[in-house]
Amino acid sequence: MNTPAKVIQLRNVSFGYLSGQPLFHQLSLQVSAGEALQLIGANGCGKTTLLKLLNGLIFPDEGEYLFLGEPVTKKRMADPAYAKSLHQKIGYVWQNPDAQLFCSSVEEEIAFGPVQMGLSPIEIQKRVQDALQLLNISHLKHRAPYTLSGGEKKKTAIGAILTMNPQIWILDEPMNDLDAAAQSWLTELLTSLQAAGKTIIFTSHEERLATALQATKKDLA
Ligand SMILES: Nc1ncnc2c1ncn2[C@@H]1O[C@H](COP(=O)(O)OP(=O)(O)OP(=O)(O)O)[C@@H](O)[C@H]1O
Ligand SMILES: [Mg+2]
């Protein structure tokens, strides 16, 4: 039987911010295609930091991060073509949507990824309409993201990833700011993405998503 391909491998990774204590020491982990992984641990233990590292926004002080078998290094990420391809394969929903949203309308925000991917205008329009409907935010499409409520911002941030249809979803506290109905909706969405073979890495201080996705846990504490 074939073992599933490892999409993400950390080998003995150490990292600390210049101004702070070391956060990870010789951390190793592997994520297979189609797996769901939940990062757990107390506030400040480094969950968001690890997700940034997986997105190639920061780099190990020691050790190696391999994405699809190849090292992700500062030098490599300085190549715009490589960085773009990594960001299209890994969709990242930030803990704070204000850090993710930068366009002047919800519609532009959700279209940004497909435009960057060079899709045809018809395909872009279709993906945007589908996402707006699926998220039930069509009425917000002309609004500036900074005027939205917390939950509306979160939905917009999820929509911006949905239209890119990445292989890997990384979500930092995705349930935050969502009401009970939206949490149920997101749980169903991620369950269906998992059934379609997507890899899902997330943090959450509550168990609902982990249970639905039968996620493996990695404790960073
Ligand atoms: N840019 C930065 N420069 C210096 N220190 C930072 C930086 N970003 C985060 N930290 C510190 O690194 C530690 C880990 O932060 P991180 O945001 O990764 O934690 P977390 O596990 O995601 O916490 P939470 O559960 O509150 O979201 C914290 O002590 C934080 O203050
Ligand atoms: Mg965090």
User: Which small-molecule ligands are present, each listed once?
Assistant: adenosine-5'-triphosphate, magnesium ion
How many individual helices?
9
Helix content: 25-40%
Number of E strands: 9
What is the strand content? 15-25%
Structural class: alpha/beta
What are the low-pLDDT stretches, counting only 5+ consecutive residues below 50?
none
**Strands ordered across the widest β-sheet:** 6-7-8-3-9
What brief labels describe this structure?
about 220 residues, alpha/beta, four-stranded antiparallel beta sheet, 9 helices, binds adenosine-5'-triphosphate
Question: How would you summarize this macromolecular structure in one to three sentences?
Answer:
By secondary structure, the protein is an alpha/beta fold. The chain is built from nine helices and nine strands.
